[in-house]
């Protein structure tokens, strides 16, 4: 901190001091006060102010000198708060408080980003293990030169679904750039999703049922199809060998439309139901099925929140699982 910069900061006070000296001198002459008396007052006041300013300047010079010296020496500039002590003057104390708050906020942000990167890395590792299974199956078919067209299509379909899941996982972090709210015909979307998953549904001999699905909702068709696909994937993964079933049912109220997707598979134990929408949570069923990352329902829940929908799950272990998506009849979107 340079002396002339400090004087520039005090220029206003110096001007006031000079005007005050002039005013005291004029009053002294007017009242015929002896020059010694009013001169002594002006001199003492000037000395007091100069001493105060010199003391303030020394404190600030020492504080900011150490601050910028430490800042130049540090490779990781954000550690400066660990090396700065609060000064005695008020401005420095306020500066340190602001610096500590900024540093705390930055560390929290960095921590969140590190957590997201770590979670994404863990997910990618699980995803790689999943996608290697159908790739290995296709490689084995080609090696043996015995290709069952139905099995071949099934493995290709699985690869496509795994690629789609990681793509939508990445898009879910910035959904405002990737969805468009408009009128959607639910029955049409359900049919399209069933067609996309026909290989595994036919392979597993699923019975499909639909009821009251000829309704219109306001949402993003692409994301709704993705969410329905994830729910169907779970129904296929956790199906029972005997009579696999999946049903689509719609209930309408004056202000909402509820689409429920129900299967008669393994079901979910009561202890896991409250955690099914958590990232990477697989629960007891996930330990029974190797190809399970626990990401499908997490992405569905995240996107429902972004688009203003509600999603919840009901289940009874060994009997059924029902996932419900609630769409509001908000005329604002229309």
3D structure, described in words:
The protein has 334 residues and is α+β, with helices and mostly antiparallel strands. It contains 11 helices and 7 strands. The strands form 2 sheets. Strands 2-4-5-7-6 form a 5-stranded mixed sheet. A two-stranded antiparallel ribbon has the order 1-3. α4 (90-144) runs antiparallel to α5 (149-171) and α8 (221-237) packs antiparallel against α11 (296-307). 19% of the residues are buried.
What is the average of the pLDDT values? 79
Give me the Rg, rounded: 36 Å
Q: Approximately how much beta-strand content do the residues carry?
A: 5-15%
Report low-confidence residues grouped into runs of 5 or more.
none
What is the helix/strand order?
A: HHHHHEHHEEHEEHHHEE
Into which percent range does the helicity of residues fall? 55-70%
Q: What's the total count of β strands?
A: 7
> Tell me, what's the shape?
elongated
> Distance between termini?
61 Å
State the helix count.
11
Sheet with most strands: 5 strands, mixed
Task: Strand order, main sheet: write it out.
Answer: 2-4-5-7-6
By secondary-structure content and strand pairing, the structural class works out as: alpha+beta
């Amino acid at each position: 901190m340079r002396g002339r910069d400090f004087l520039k900061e005090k220029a206003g006070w110096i001007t006031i001091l000079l005007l005050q000296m002039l005013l005291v001198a004029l009053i002294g002459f007017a009242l015929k006060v002896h020059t010694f008396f009013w001169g002594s007052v002006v001199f003492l006041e000037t000395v007091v102010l100069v001493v105060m300013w010199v003391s303030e300047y020394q404190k600030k010079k020492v504080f900011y000198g150490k601050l910028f010296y430490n800042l130049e020496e540090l490779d990781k500039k954000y550690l400066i708060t660990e090396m700065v002590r609060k000064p005695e003057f008020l401005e420095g104390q306020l500066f340190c408080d602001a610096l500590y708050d900024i540093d705390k906020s930055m560390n929290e942000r960095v921590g969140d980003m590190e957590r997201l990167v770590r979670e994404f890395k863990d997910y990618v590792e699980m995803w790689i293990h999943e996608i290697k299974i159908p790739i290995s199956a296709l490689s084995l078919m080609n090696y043996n030169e015995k290709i069952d067209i139905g099995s071949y299509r099934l493995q290709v379909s699985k690869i496509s679904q795994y690629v789609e899941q990681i793509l939508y996982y990445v898009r879910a972090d910035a959904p405002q750039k990737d969805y468009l709210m408009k009128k959607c015909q639910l029955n049409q979307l359900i049919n399209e999703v069933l067609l996309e998953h026909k290989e595994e549904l036919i392979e597993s001999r699923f019975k499909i049922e639909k009821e009251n699905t000829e309704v219109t909702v306001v949402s993003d068709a692409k994301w709704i199809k993705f969410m329905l696909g994830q729910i169907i994937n779970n129904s296929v993964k956790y199906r029972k060998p005997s009579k696999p079933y999946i049903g689509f049912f719609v209930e309408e109220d004056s202000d909402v439309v509820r689409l429920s997707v129900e299967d008669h598979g393994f079901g979910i134990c009561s202890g896991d139901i409250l955690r099914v929408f958590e990232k990477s949570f697989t629960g007891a069923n996930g330990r029974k099925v190797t190809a399970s990352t626990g990401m499908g329902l997490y992405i569905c829940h995240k996107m429902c929140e972004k688009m203003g929908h509600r999603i919840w799950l009901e289940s009874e272990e060994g009997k059924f699982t029902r996932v419900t998506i609630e769409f509001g009849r908000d005329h604002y979107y229309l």
